[in-house]
User: What shape does this take?
Amino acid sequence: MNKLIIQDVSFERNNQLLFSGINCSLQSGELLQIIGTNGSGKSTLLRILAGYLEPLSGIISWQDESIFAQDEYQQQLHYLGHQNGIKPYLTVAENCHLYCALTRHNIEIDFALKKMGLSSIKHQQALRLSAGQLRRLALARLLIKSAHLWILDEPTTALDLEGQHLFAELLQQHLKQGGLAILSSHQDLHLPFTQQLRLGRQHV
Amino acid sequence: MFKSFLTIIQHEIRVTMRQAFSWITPLLFFVIVVSLFPLAIGPDETLLRKIAPGIIWVAALLAILISIGNLFRTDAEEGYLDLLLLSPHSLTLLVCSKIFSYWFTHCLPLILVSPLLGLLLNLTSHEELTLIITLLLGTPVLCLLGAVGAGLVVGIRGHGLLLPVLIMPLYVPILIFGTGAMMAASLHQPLNGYFAIMGAFLLVSLAFAPLLTGVALRIGVNQ
Amino acid sequence: MFHWIQKRFLAPKAFYRSSGYFLPWISLLFILCFSYGLISGLFIAPADYQQGDGFRIMYVHVPSAFTSMAIYLVMASCAVVTLVWRVKIAAICMSCSAPIGAWFTFLALITGSIWGKPMWGTWWIWDARLTSVLILLFLYLGFIALQSVMADQQTRDRTGAVIAIVGVINLPIIHYSVIWWNTLHQGPSISQFAKPAIATPMLNPLLAMIAAFILFYVVILFLRVRNQILLRKML
Assistant: This one.
């Protein structure tokens, strides 16, 4: 049973409070959706939860230990930001191989590519792909490496309807296997969220 | 694990090779800068031979400085830097592999072309050999120190000449000993001391620079 | 002792209060040292055997050079404290010290140059010390340039700290490399930056001036840090 507890987290940027008093706890199989308008600090909060930034105050603990005290916390999660983390001059397959080397997972990437509908363009350079295809490739990483916690910042941008269904399927599968997920969106995604966190004027 | 790093380095080099512009331009810059000096100073052979070490070293230094600022910039823009920070591999080693790929694609061509430029400046074969060895020992140090600067400016848009301004004072020692070795070579003095010191610089830079670059990257990644 | 410092200087409010208390005293001490050093250095100390009265500029040049190096060490220490313990006051001290250090370095160069004119007949000479000081000036200016480009406060503090630490590690290496370079290229004509043999009547004013410059730095630093505390609304 994996547990993520967020206690009284606040963050300031350039001496201005971005948000404060964020409290939440998440367990295996649960989905947290963070909703807020542009500029409300969703991406910043996600980056804090992913361990990239330290909050101004508050504690975030994974398995009852602060995430900033553990070395392996970041290795147990997936983070997907606004950018895709794809190298444009490498092909789809090469990007996957690079990711495998980066995460020390040597698996057959064909399964992941097939699931995301990218098998046909396996040997195309990433700079020739459309925005939706690039997003799918980024999501394919979720299949290449299994992780307990998914932190995804607006994962369905640029995805067509089929892509969105695919993503919903992936997410359901992940939650069913005991994973946790934190998503952000500026609109309601009609996903089976367990909890919602609204950022915006109420939280400042 | 070694195999993972080999794959990572291989892919980095592949990316650079597919953008031929990125490594050919510094090389051309190097050649052009060296060629400018005879035009500016005059074709006096003895004079050129005397200042050749300085010209070649400064030109190589500048060629590295103008291109190393972007070492991590594209990675940061693509979101690839985020992935590096999440990797189970130590960030120091990942930075090392990045610097090695950079050195391989940007500095190795410089080193290979330098004997030809030495010919332009009337160097003897003994001096040419010394030139190659000093560049082999010195360019990695330049890359390592430059990488620290690149890590610091990773979040800054349009940093322009900031990186050269930051890093050039740090280049002074290696410049002094690199050119010193070549002057000793022209006077047929023993060179072991120079190579030993440059080797020491290399080892110390290897020990500190990737670590500090990693620290700088963790700070700058959130821009 | 450490606890005493911690209580009085670490929190911004405490720093503001303590610095306000100490400032008049430090200023007084500065005026005393500076007057003694200046008067006895310029008028009372005997003229040098070799250089005549020209050597007196040493009383400004040597303290400036010394202070510029000392300030860099202080900056680097603050940088370590900023990175390791995340103390905001240390970051503010580091940022505020940089322009002061740069000015002292510039002063050292100018006075060194003025000293050189009657000594060797040229306005500039590439001797070990002046060259080292020049590179130190570049290190300071690089630090200031880096800080001026960044918008986000926290990133600015921490990246500045990294470059300060990188600079301080390199400082002895650069210094000795330049000394070595200078001995390598020494021409037959003597161009060593000869410091006159220091006798006691010359030494005391020199020490007083060094102390005065350091105190001056502390005064200006306190004033600037207090300004920053107010600007950043940390009171």
